[in-house]
Design brief:
By secondary structure, the protein is mainly α. It has helices at residues 6-41, 43-74, 85-115, 135-170, 174-178; strands spanning 120-122, 125-127.
């Protein structure tokens, strides 16, 4: 059974977990906004959620850069059972959008945070802001960050649905290519 290399599979699953977590926390922020998040979770927990949302955004960006380099160097394995033309086109489009939008999302978050005058936190360190303080620009960038987040959520759902279809319906070995075990 053709499979991705171990490093490719580890990067995939680490990114999947980090992205799902960051999207989940980001949706809390988007739906409740700052005030609602504080009212729901308290000030300390809200600050912790923001800190680690930013931290994982930076980690996601770094892991995506590594993943892109690894993909360019190692490519991808052949399919045990070839995909249909539609499946192949859809897979290429979906993965291309992930490789474009995931780093874009992280960069937009970094830009928005700095432009809004908030610290860009990475664990207990403060990273430099890329842009100077500009509240209007920061608000626009946060809005774009949120829109990309919703698009990514839709793509993640489509990706998971396609994986489940290949695993449980088609049983064509596609899931084995990326499984850890």
């Amino acid at each position: 059974m053709p499979r991705y290399t171990l490093i490719q599979r580890l990067l995939h699953w680490a990114l999947a977990l980090m992205i799902l977590g960051a999207l989940g926390v980001g949706m809390i922020f988007g739906i409740l906004e700052y005030k609602g998040t504080v009212e729901t979770f308290g000030n300390d927990m809200t600050n912790t959620l923001y800190k680690y949302h930013k931290t994982f955004g930076v980690l996601i960006l770094a892991f995506m850069v590594v993943r892109i380099v690894v993909k360019i160097r190692l490519g991808k394995p052949e399919y045990a059972t070839p995909l249909t033309r539609f499946e192949n086109a859809a897979s290429n489009a979906l993965h291309g959008l992930f490789y474009l939008l995931v780093p874009l999302m992280a960069v937009l978050g970094w830009l928005a945070t700095g432009a809004s005058g908030f610290p860009v936190e990475f664990f207990n360190w403060t990273l430099p802001a890329i842009l100077g303080k500009d509240k209007e620009l920061g608000a626009l960038l946060f809005q774009l960050h949120g829109i990309v987040g919703w698009i990514l959520l839709i793509l993640v759902i489509v990706h998971i649905a396609a994986a489940v279809k290949h695993w449980l319906v088609k049983r064509d070995g596609v899931m084995a290519r990326m499984s850890l075990f």
